[in-house]
């Protein structure tokens, strides 16, 4: 780690014992516990008090770095934050870190810089790792899949990750990934990839792109919750995807969202009690609805003992063109009683915007419109901020209508 960064002044002389404040007399383990509850920026700031405080904050087992946190009342500039992170990590060169969180939402960073930070943390025997980064990044699979200390792993990032033919993380209990694009390892190839997590209990993958043709076997004997939302950007007839196989005899909760482009095969799934299956019907696959129904049947029949089943075939408003809305008669309820409108799975395309415009222009009694962006927008290049501005600028028939936008994470 580089040495350039936020200046940490350790020249301040320690006060005498008689003048020392009560907090400074506490044992270092207690001081460390206190600092673990404050933002890392404030924890590092205590180093100006004395040399002893430097030793206290640098012994923390939890690091949460967030470029949106305030520093002296305002956000850090990009270079200032980078230098701060470098300075902090330098203090942990010879230490382990149990919990590490890196949230980058305010600036764009050099991909190699972020990869270096993550690799550094993985070498510190981290147990709980949380990374949130919206820009594109290539993450080293070697350092990630060799970190056996991991207990919880959360990756919310537009990251490309190559899968080796075999992965085994013996201590991993919870895996939550979103926005990851999985690709085949260019150095090794096998028709089957095995991911072995002996004590994993929760597997959640949302908005990931499984751009591989190999079969993926999840060896997860203790898995209880399996949730996957598959998004294949370049899905077409010429691209054949492999099968995802889940081996677990303790699976009780199952959730799937996607176009069934990839088969999901469950082994030992007799304990599943709760299941949610959302089939997304693309515009270019409308003539294959019957086939999708058969595929959905094959998926459902693997859950013989399910007690609560939610099955939804989801289709957007792709057929709702401008001319259709222009010639449409306004329903009577729009003029008398229609008060609440919720638009879930908003894709921010022209057809969706036409529908929103139609509602705002014709619903005289509308009081509240809530728009829930489709989850994949988080990983797209669409500027959702500009889309919001455009919608808020649209004319409204109802003078007391409030337009709200749900967070993409909650969609």
TrEMBL record:
Transmembrane residue ranges: none
A family per Pfam: FBD
SUPFAM superfamilies listed in its UniProt record: F-box domain
Domain FBD: start-end pairs: 332-406
Superkingdom of origin organism: Eukaryota
UniProt xrefs under SMART domains: FBD (SM00579)
Protein name: FBD domain-containing protein
Lineage, highest ranks first: Eukaryota, Viridiplantae, Streptophyta, Embryophyta, Tracheophyta
């Amino acid at each position: 780690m580089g040495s350039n960064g936020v200046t940490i002044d350790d020249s301040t002389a320690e006060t005498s014992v008689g003048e020392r404040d009560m907090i400074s007399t506490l044992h270092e383990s207690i001081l460390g516990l206190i600092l673990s509850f404050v933002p890392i920026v404030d924890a590092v700031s205590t180093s100006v008090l004395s040399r002893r405080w430097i030793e206290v904050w640098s012994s923390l087992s939890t690091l949460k770095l967030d470029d949106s946190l305030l520093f002296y009342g305002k956000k850090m500039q990009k270079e200032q934050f980078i230098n701060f992170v470098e300075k902090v990590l330098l203090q942990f060169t010879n230490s382990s870190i149990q919990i590490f969180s890196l949230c980058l939402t305010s600036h764009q960073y050099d991909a190699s810089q972020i990869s270096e930070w993550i690799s550094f943390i993985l070498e510190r025997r981290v147990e709980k790792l949380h990374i949130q980064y919206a820009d594109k990044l290539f993450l080293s699979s070697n350092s990630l899949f060799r970190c056996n200390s991991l207990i919880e792993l959360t990756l919310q990032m537009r990251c490309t990750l190559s899968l080796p033919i075999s992965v085994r993380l013996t201590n991993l209990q919870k895996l939550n990934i979103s926005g990851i694009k999985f690709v085949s390892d260019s150095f090794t190839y096998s028709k089957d990839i095995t991911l072995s997590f002996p004590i994993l209990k929760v597997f959640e993958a949302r908005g990931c792109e499984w751009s591989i043709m190999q079969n993926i076997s999840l060896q997860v004997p203790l898995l209880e919750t399996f949730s996957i939302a598959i998004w294949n950007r370049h899905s077409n007839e010429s691209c054949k995807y492999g099968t995802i196989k889940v081996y677990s005899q303790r699976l009780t909760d199952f959730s799937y969202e996607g176009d069934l482009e990839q088969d999901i095969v469950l082994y030992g799934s007799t304990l599943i009690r709760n299941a949610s299956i959302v089939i997304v019907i693309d515009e270019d696959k409308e003539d294959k609805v019957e086939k999708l129904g058969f595929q959905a049947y094959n998926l459902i029949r693997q859950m013989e003992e399910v007690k609560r089943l939610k099955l939804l075939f989801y289709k957007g408003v792709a057929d709702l063109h401008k001319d259709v809305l222009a010639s449409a008669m306004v329903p009577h309820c729009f003029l008398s009683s229609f008060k609440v409108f919720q638009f879930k799975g908003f894709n921010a395309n022209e057809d969706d915007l036409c529908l929103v415009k139609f509602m705002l222009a014709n619903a005289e009694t509308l009081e509240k419109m809530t728009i829930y962006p489709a989850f994949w927008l988080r990983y797209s290049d669409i500027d959702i901020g500009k889309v919001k501005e455009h919608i808020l600028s649209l004319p409204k028939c109802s003078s007391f209508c409030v337009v709200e936008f749900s967070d993409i994470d909650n969609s």
